[in-house]
Amino acid sequence: SYELTQPPSVSVSPGQTASITCSGDKLGDKYSCWYQQKPGQSPVLVIYQDTKRPSGIPERFSGSNSGNTATLTISGTQAMDEADYYCQAWDSSTVVFGGGTKLTVL
Amino acid sequence: EVQLVESGGGLVKPGGSLRLSCAASGFTFSSYNMNWVRQAPGKGLEWVASISNRNGYIYYADSVKGRFTISRDYAKNSLYLQMNSLRAEDTAVYYCAGVDTAMVALAYWGQGTLVTVSS
Predict the structure, then answer these.
(1) In A, which residues are within 8 Å of B35 by CB distance?
(2) Where are the extended beta strands (E) located within chain A?
(3) A45 touches chain B (CB under 8 A)
(4) Is the dihedral of CA A11, A2, A40, A81 positive or negative?
(5) Closest residue to B105, CB basis, from A33, A94, A97
(6) Which of A10, A24, B28, B44 lies 20 to 30 Å (CA to CA) from residue B73?
(7) Which tens digits make up the pLDDT trace of B27-53?
(8) Do A42 and B61 touch (CB under 8 A)?
(9) pLDDT beyond 80 at B55
(10) pLDDT at B53
């Protein structure tokens, strides 16, 4: 079965750029998405189709996907961005999630 | 406003059954592929099952295949998950999520319902 691998944790200072990676075999050939989940809340879509932002998601969130790696980048990271982030792709019409990355803003 | 509201969670003994429901409003339910996603306490997201909008294609994670059944009622704008032969490892918050086919992403999520399997 298809697998997506994320680092368990990433730390960033306020105002700096955070990058969270997601690795999978030929992931660049698939569409990737990213979800943000804060404690006690449901996941929220922040990036779809590799690079696009849904309405209401701040411009500081961006994405890329090439080769075997998709990357979520948060520019000018704010304290409110501290959350768990999950990448997601499709494999034979089924949903695959990465293990999640806890972003700490300190 | 898009709303997905899950219900039906609770405490059940190992080997027992439970039926989850998800009521949809604020969007054209019949146009969306729907999914169940779960999250065990302190763990990550795990996809459980999906059902397509038109052709009725259904898919299950290996961990629930043969025990869980996903279905939908277009007249009631509702999604269901029948869970049988429940195990302790099925303990999780269960979310229903709708796929925006233009986005190719799980754009809509409910608030989740907690299922606890314990004796």
Answers:
(1) 95
(2) 9-12, 18-23, 32-37, 44-47, 61-66, 69-74, 83-91, 94-97, 101-105
(3) yes
(4) positive
(5) A33
(6) B44
(7) 899 889 999 999 999 999 999 999 998
(8) no
(9) no
(10) 86
Q: What's the average model confidence in pLDDT over A71-85?
A: 98
Pairing state between β B10-12 and B113-117: parallel
**Any residues with CB less than 8 A from the CB of B22 and at least 6 apart, and which?**
B4, B5, B6, B7, B34, B36, B78, B79, B80, B96, B110
User: For the segment B68-118, what is each residue's pLDDT rounded down to a tens digit?
Assistant: 999 999 999 999 999 999 999 999 999 999 998 888 999 999 999 999 999
Tokens of B65: 């295949």
Which residues of B, range 25-44, sit inside 8 Å of A by Cβ?
A: 35, 37, 44
A14: pLDDT strictly greater than 80: yes
> Which residue of chain A comes nearest to B50, CA vs CA?
A94
Flag if B50 and A90 touch (Cβ within 8 Å): no
- Token pair of A94, please? 């089924």
Distance CA B107, CA B92 (A): 21
Tokens of B3: 């709303």
C-alpha distances out from residue B61 to A102, B36, B46, B65, Å: 25, 10, 9, 6
* Secondary structure (3-state) at B34: strand
Closest residue on chain A to B99 (Cα): A95
